[in-house]
Amino acid sequence: MQQSLIIYCDESDDKGEFYSHFYGGALINARDQDRITEELNAKKLDLNINSEMKWDRVTAPYKDKYIEFIKLYFSFIKSGHIKVRIMFTQNINQARGLTDEHIGNDYFLLYYQFVKHSFGLRYCNGNHAGTRVALLLDDVPQTSKKFELFKDYMSSLSAFPIWRQAQVSIKKEDIASVNSKAHPILQGLDIILGAVQSRLNEKHTRPPKPRARRSKRAIAKEAVYKAIKDEIWSLYPNFNVGTSTACANGVEERWSHPYRHWLFKPNNSVQDLKRGKRKKPH
Predict the structure, then answer these.
(1) Cα–Cα distance between 181 and 261 in angstroms, integer?
(2) Cα–Cα–Cα angle for 23, 135, 57, nearest 5°?
């Protein structure tokens, strides 16, 4: 029997101080969509949160509620019912030889690489007679014409030899732009992705100039980030959020791991250490 997978996709911080081009994905089996959605919405109701949950909306009064929600979200990750992948670039790695087309279409080109590689979909089939993958992207910031071209481009992954051999496909009609307000799975992804990019770019860890102290919101965000980090460390002790997750037992772990990071380095890139920071983030 063919299996159906859904990847919820989000992006954040195209240009950060130290890290840029943040992309996130939350993969579920289509049969689990309603159950996970209902449980996450029930938690929001229990927390008396009626609006959309987003990293940008973390405040001191809501800090503990966000932590409770994210703990439930990670319970689905730990059980294997949600697989999360985060991809980003580091500014010290500067791509060379980019054309105007590359620069103008970087949003789509990076999404293509993210979906193609980060989940290890070539290993997802197991005993299934093929896999059909749907992509649900949060509020695509492109024109409808460009999005149609993007869907053509992404669906061409079905012809990728390794995918074709593994019987994995993405059909154009299964790629859609959605509003995260209606998808708590996307909201949880937004919180995790936002926390990672905020930490890597030191947004909530230091006061903005010329202030001498951090705001109450920044301190609340640090608490939510630390809760997320603790959940990640319960899976991978001493996990470094600024590096790619290793595959200790082979590249098949790109599929089997419940949570992974990918520091994407463009081909033919050169290092400009002036764009980096001294200490590695944890």
Answers:
(1) 25
(2) 50
| Residue pLDDT, tens place only, 79-114 | 999 999 999 999 887 666 555 454 456 788 889 999
What is residue 255's predicted lDDT score, i.e. its pLDDT? 97
- Taking CA 189 as the corner, what is the angle to CA 180 and CA 57, rounded to the nearest 5 degrees? 70
Contact 201, 16 (CB under 8 A): yes
The rounded distance, in Å, linking the Cα atoms of 127 and 254 is 18
Q: What CATH number does the domain containing 153 carry?
A: 3.30.420.10
The residues, any chain, with a CB within 8 Å of residue 281's CB and separated by 6 or more, are: 199, 200, 240, 241, 242
Q: So what's the pLDDT on residue 220?
A: 96
pTM over 0.85: yes
Tokens of 77: 């990750």
| DSSP at 251 | T
Decide if pLDDT at 223 tops 90. yes
Residue type for 63, please? K
Say how many domains are in the chain: 1
The stretch 239-248 carries a mean pLDDT of: 94
Report pLDDT for 100. Answer: 44
Give the structural domain span for 119.
3-275
Angle between the 63-78 and 33-46 helix axes, to the nearest 10 degrees? 160
pLDDT at 93: 74
CB atoms within 10 A of CB 241: 21
Residue 91, CA distances (Å) to 6, 98, 100, 121, 241 in order: 31, 15, 19, 28, 15
